[in-house]
Amino acid sequence: QRIGYALVGLGHLTLEELLPAFSECKKSKVVALVSGSQDKLQKVAQQYGIKPSNLYSYEQYDRLKDNPEVQAIYIVLPNGMHAEYTIRGAQAGKHILCEKPMANTSAECQAMIGACRKANRKLMVAYRIQYEPNNRMIREMIQSKRFGTTKFIEAFNVQNSANPQHWRHIKALAGGGALPDIGLYCLNTIRYLLGEEPTEVFGYQYSTPGDPRFREVEEMVSWQMRFPSGVIANCGTNYGVHETRRYRVMAEQGWMGLDPAFAYNGLQPEISYAEGKVEHKESPKIAEKNQFASEIDHFSDCIMQNKTPFTPGEEGLQDHKIMEAIYQSAREGRPVKLAEITKKDAFR
Ligand code: NAD
Prior knowledge:
Helix content is 32%, strand content 26%. The protein is an alpha/beta fold. The strands form two sheets. Strands 14-13-12-11-7-10-9-8-15 form a nine-stranded mixed beta sheet. It has a six-stranded parallel beta sheet with strand order 3-2-1-4-5-6, sandwiched between helices. It is globular. The chain starts with a strand and ends in an 11-residue tail after the last strand. It binds nicotinamide-adenine-dinucleotide. Keywords: Oxidoreductase.
């Protein structure tokens, strides 16, 4: 038995990653497509064997309500459209898997959570890191204190973004610049690794003057987060430099991290520790799994077993609250304290 999905938005992520990932899923299948392009709908449907009667334009989206083959909707649209399509999808009686970042603002996240709750449908943010074995291994090393107490974390996710016309550079469609798009991985992964929530953030923001890519959204954000255990995380994201994706967790007797981190594949753990006077360096290899397939099957499993997803809407909301505090700190030039957050059941 497999959960039937409608994929909404036939852009890069859907075509290059998600459709192939579904072929590796064990509990999930694509049964319907929603797109603004009739041409794309026909081509993709033919390639993946999707029935012509299960192809929808955006105007026909609400008609998914009448299609019992569709149990879940996977929203893969520009960030600024996530809230509307989640809310309408829940009102159509479907469970919602929504791409990251969850929305443009925390207020939109609240509305999405409310709509899914009201419709008694599940909502999951399509984060990958939490379903990926290398990150899980490092989380386990941190939480079991393999190298003693963690003190400091450093994380960077930066890349060159080339096209100023792309929706990622339009505030209404993207919500922000590098921070919600790629910086989010640093933030979200560190929260996952530590299993605790930051109590205070401090941020700097900068955009190169005159660069057409950064008329509406920021080029870079550099920020720090303080955690209740005493850990301080130092993070950076940037749309204007050559790609770097990595993190390192520094503990009393060793450090561990991924370089590269956050990528779809090819993640490489790096571990260093001392035994007496001998320094060890290890680069263990873990069998790769398709991260998207793991994440999608997790959601299907939650629907089948009536369980709460590991990354529910509240998880996306929390990330947005923290990003808003980082922007506020950068604007006001001072640290911003975050309201006390109760640890969710999923992280116990
Ligand atoms: P994309 O630009 O390649 O695709 C977006 C799709 O939305 C296109 O098919 C486009 O036609 C459609 N669309 C509908 N209305 C639009 C409008 N008004 N303006 C622009 N496009 C419109 O983008 P993508 O890279 O596929 O990203 C889609 C979503 O997936 C984003 O939320 C992004 O953050 C997320 N994403 C997640 C990951 C991940 O690793 N989880 C990776 C890449 C993208």
